[in-house]
Hints:
By secondary structure, the protein is of the alpha/beta class. It contains 10 helices and 15 strands. The strands form 3 sheets. The chain has a 9-stranded mixed sheet with strand order 3-4-2-5-1-6-7-8-15, with helices on both faces. Strand 7, helix 6 and strand 8 form a beta-alpha-beta unit.
Amino acid sequence: MGFLRYLLFPFSVLYMVVMSLRNFLFSVGVFKSTTYAVQSLGIGNLSTGGTGKSVAINYFISLFKEDYPITVLSRGYGRISKGFQLGDEGSTAKTVGDEPLMFLQQHPGIRVGVCNNRRQGMNALIGHESNKGNGVFLWDDCFQHRWVKPSYMVLLTTFSSPYFKDYVLPVGNLRELSEGADRADIIIVTKCPQNISLEQQTEIRERLQPKNHQHLFFSSIRYADTVYGKSRQLPLSVLSKIPFLLVTSIADASELVFYLKGKFEAFEHMPFKDHHLFTDADIDQILAQSNGRMILTTHKDFTRLSPLLEEDILFYLPIEMEILNGASASLNSFVKEGMSLI
């Protein structure tokens, strides 16, 4: 790996120079970021994925949806449609992407739009007849989309691979230098162990060096005690008696695999690349591997697999973001205050 990094280093330097120049031009006003008269919260990261953005989006949807109409704007990774699309009851993972479809299924009544160009997407959503003037907009994976600027920005980085330990593409997974983190208002260290110590938190804080305007939080993944299929649900504990096949198509399945291995022994893991479009050959392979056993997956993957597999064998395990140290009220307050909602 060290030798490969040595070979890729010149390309990494070139990428770093281009991205740094781009950010500089935005900072000095040569490139203009569009702002909007609506309240918007951006959620993003510095790396190429796997930080838990969809879980964070769900957290903030739940925070706001009782008081405000919610609109989510996403790129719609994994879709085959083009341009702007507004999700509806007939949407599929192919038309809006797996994560946007998951948001629609988890939170009936919200609006979800997808567009590669965030500025075009916002213009379409604001101008659409379904728009409500007092709503909150959540922007998924928008940290590097600097042509638009949210009211408030949340940056995610993982406990196991924080951005201060990473390298710029293609040597590492960073989309830009770690100095870009200065644009965030909130930094959340995600996927922390439940028993993370104060010493570990202090060390991470010292390495992250948040600015005076930034607030730092730590979070972990909380798994449900129930697995869900299309038409029925089962207690998670039943998996101790039922051998199953775990199928994932997410950026980083290590946390889920580690959790399941700590509770169950009789399962195999069949990984695919993130946002994988499952083919008939893939389904045949999955069915052959499962050999009639239960197939467990993530909610995001369930949106793509459920039309292709029998509902009796396919289930997903829901997850939530849990803010540690009893700090959820503080996080919620900072976000609402930063968006001028209180």
